[in-house]
Amino acid sequence: SEAHLFALRACLDRLAPRAREVVRLRYHEEQAPGAIAARLAWGVNAVHVALARARVALRQCVEKQARGAA
User: What is the pLDDT of residues 47-59, one digit of tens each?
Assistant: First the structure.
């Protein structure tokens, strides 16, 4: 829904800068984790962990926004 998209955008803005960058590279630029790792001079596992943590933070934030709007 449009409300969820609005919440997601707001939550993306609240992520730490590096987490936001990793999410942008993965989902906006559609880069593979290996390419992101090379670009940021990280290990591939670090990219996977950063993405997993960012997804959890985003999910929790969007759910909190949805509860607050209900």
Answer: 999 999 999 999 9
Question: Rg (Cα) of the chain, in Å, rounded?
Answer: 13
Query: Rounded to whole angstroms, what are the CA distances from 42 to 1, 2, 33, 38?
Result: 35, 35, 10, 6
Tell whether the torsion through CA atoms of 42, 44, 46 and 52 is positive or negative: positive
Question: At residue 70, does pLDDT exceed 60?
Answer: no
**DSSP codes, 39-54:** HHT--HHHHHHHHHHH
**DSSP code of 26?**
I
For helices 44-69 and 2-14, give the axis angle rounded to 10 degrees.
130
Let me know how many helices (H) and strands (E) the chain has, helices first.
4, 0
